[in-house]
Amino acid sequence: MTWADVVKTTIYLVSGADRAAFNVARSEVTGGIKNAATLLFVSGLALPGLLVEVEAVAAAAE
Q: Relative to the CA of 62, which of 10, 16, 18, 48 has its CA 20 to 30 Å away?
């Protein structure tokens, strides 16, 4: 599967200050492909020091 198969992402950011940099990185990684997305700001993630977590749901035709 590729980013073209991703139908939804959920992004968890520890700091709102990282939003612009994340958007640039996401565009570079995905080639500008857009999908449904939810962005959440959280106080922390599972491992200390992590700044971002991305959950992706993909679907492919059979």
A: 10
